[in-house]
Amino acid sequence: MRFRRHGLTDQPPIVHSESVPANVEGSLPRAALWGDRPWQRQGAALIGFLAVSWVVSLLASLPIRMNAGWYALADKAPWTPPGWIFGSVWLTLYAAMAVAAWLVWRQLHFPRSAAFRLYGGLLLLNLTWPLMFFGLYPMMGAAALWLALLLIGAHAVVATLTVLCFGPISRTAGLLMLPYVSWLVFSASLNVYAAVNN
Known about the structure:
By secondary structure, the protein is mainly alpha-helical. 75% of the residues lie in helices and 0% in strands.
């Protein structure tokens, strides 16, 4: 045959080994599906994350309520929103944080310990800043406000790291944390003005 001279002979079909992944995507960790955990457990976990978040919110509000007198008379930034907006925004942000943490918890096929350590650090910082800013000002004066500014700066850094840690595990979780970072930056601007002018 003419084709044999050019090496175009019939060859047996190439059989791919089953040990070789069909595609790269198939070899990557897959996101946890709804079926990976029972619905009841997932629902209970979501309620638990929300409960923890709102308990932290309640505890963090105590120093504010107990020491609101001096802040009402303080020199505040012209862009300071009304008091009721603070409460509404924080409740919404705490809920978004809880849902973000829950979404990360659902991803069974990703390492999540570092993400939850950062999240726990955020909750601790949320408890500490109001105590520093509102609670210690009557005793320490402006020094407490400057310390609170350092604390909220660290808070913003940890929140940014949490976004970067949550994002690869759950894109939605990372996006849910972005408003929290933005609000911390805004709150830091209020803190700076208060420290300089009080």
